[in-house]
Specification:
Blueprint (H helix, E strand, L loop, with lengths): L2 H10 L4 E7 L9 E7 L2 E7 L4 E6 L1 H14 L1 E7 L3 E7 L5 E7 L25 H5 L14 H15 L11 E6 L5 H13 L4 E7 L2 H14 L4 E5 L13 E4 L6 H11 L4 E4 L6 H5 L7 H4 L1 H22 L2 E7 L10 E7 L4 H18 L4 H5 L2 H9 L1
Parallel strand pairs: 8-9, 8-11, 9-10, 11-12
Antiparallel strand pairs: 1-2, 1-5, 2-3, 3-4, 5-6, 6-7, 12-14, 13-14
């Protein structure tokens, strides 16, 4: 085993404390010892000089990367403790790596955390097959320590849905469409949450353009015993639902594909909409303004402002169509910079609120020359029926 493999094996044993010592003189890190303490789902690193101690808080993934970096260049020894054993990894001057594992005779005390343990919806200790196949849970339902960040992200996604789920009908089957489902990690989690946690009768369809991906998803659904979850090859643009739709999910639809997903949701009068837009190029290409030339002069500024304005306009258009709409922060599993989730709930909004939302869209369109696709799609009877009907 090489150094990384040894450190990872130690990390998988779920240590609560690690001491990194024996600094390499020529490395000149400035620290003679590092102490890593696990606090909740993250770690705190204490960096010791001869006269001072500096602290840094890291996530689980960041902490392991930091440990590996230190042992590769600045230090030659790491001692770590779990509940039963002490692990010692040494790197000789010649680069030879050795590892020793023994019963901990006098293990150091764990540092007390002041963080209250969060009660996650998808609880650790529960066997959830999709999470196991994603490498986030062990076979026993325990969170893999290095995957804690992804575990939190998935729970955050479920929490955003949990907040509004009670508005769905309780006396019949709930129909859900997931546009651009991709490999469907969150689709499987959502189906599990709705059927196993909330005990709802749900029929869910995942739609994507890639036939091989859809085939794999259908095999996985069969493997998990998810009888009312199936996947189809299809284009968001021309998709027609076989019946009423209660919830629309769109987490990976690129550029104007998101607009078609939102358009269908409004057309079907879906009660709930959850969308994480991606690759928003449309308004960036259209954006011009003499009065606010500063916002269009620099490419990176223009790109980011156009992306945010795209979502703001979408939010207002949904409001105009009778949806209580929020733009919320959501970090996707792929760690893309697109971190806005649109959450919309069909409700009864005052006419004045809808008209104001329309006026704000018109003002932005006039100022920057925008022609938003969703605005073009929501024409005629669809807008009239949803806004003023």
């Amino acid at each position: 085993m090489d150094l990384q493999q040894m450190l990872y094996a130690m990390w998988e044993a779920d240590p609560y404390k690690a001491v990194i010592s024996n600094p390499v003189p020529e490395a000149e890190s400035g620290f003679h010892k590092l102490v890593m303490n696990r606090l909740g789902t993250g770690w705190q690193v204490e960096k010791y000089t001869k006269t001072q101690v500096f602290h840094e808080n890291l996530s689980g993934e960041e902490a392991f990367a930091y440990l590996l970096e230190c042992m590769r260049g600045s230090f030659r020894q790491c001692n770590a403790w779990d509940e039963k054993k002490e692990y010692t990894i040494r790197v000789s001057k010649g680069g030879k790596v050795s590892c020793q594992k023994k019963k901990a005779e006098r293990p150091p005390k764990a540092k007390a955390s002041h963080d209250r343990k969060k009660n996650y919806i998808l609880q650790e200790g529960t066997v959830i097959p999709p999470l196991k196949d994603m490498g986030i849970f062990t076979a026993e339902g325990k969170v893999v320590r290095s995957m804690y960040d992804k575990y939190k992200q998935i729970n955050r996604f479920v929490e955003l849905i949990e907040d509004e789920i009670d508005c769905l009908p309780k006396d019949r089957t709930i129909n859900v469409i997931d546009f651009g489902c991709g490999k469907s990690y969150l689709t499987f989690i959502l189906y599990y949450y709705l059927t196993e946690v909330r005990m709802m009768d749900v029929h869910m369809v995942g739609l994507d353009l890639k036939a091989d991906v859809i085939e794999n998803c259908n095999r996985a659904a069969e493997k998990y015993g998810y009888e009312k979850l199936h996947f189809e090859v299809g284009d968001i643009h021309g998709y027609e639902a076989p019946g009423p739709v209660d919830m629309v999910i769109s987490l990976h639809a690129c550029d104007t594909a998101t607009d078609y997903a939102l358009y269908h949701a409004v057309r079907w009068k879906a009660k709930l909409i959850f969308s994480v837009p991606c690759c928003q190029h449309e308004l960036n290409r259209q954006m011009e303004s003499e009065e606010y030339a500063l916002l269009t002069r620099y490419g990176i500024v223009k790109e980011r402002i156009a992306a945010l304005m795209t979502d703001a306009i979408r939010g207002n258009l949904l409001t105009e169509c009778g949806y209580k709409t929020q733009l919320l922060e959501f970090v996707d599993l792929s760690h893309t910079p697109k971190n806005v989730l649109i959450r919309a709930v069909r409700t009864v909004l005052p006419r004045s609120v809808r008209i104001k939302a329309r006026q704000e869209v018109e003002a932005v369109k006039q100022q920057f020359g925008f022609r938003p696709k969703l605005d073009e799609l929501l024409v005629g009877d669809i807008r009239e029926e949803n806004t003023y009907g």
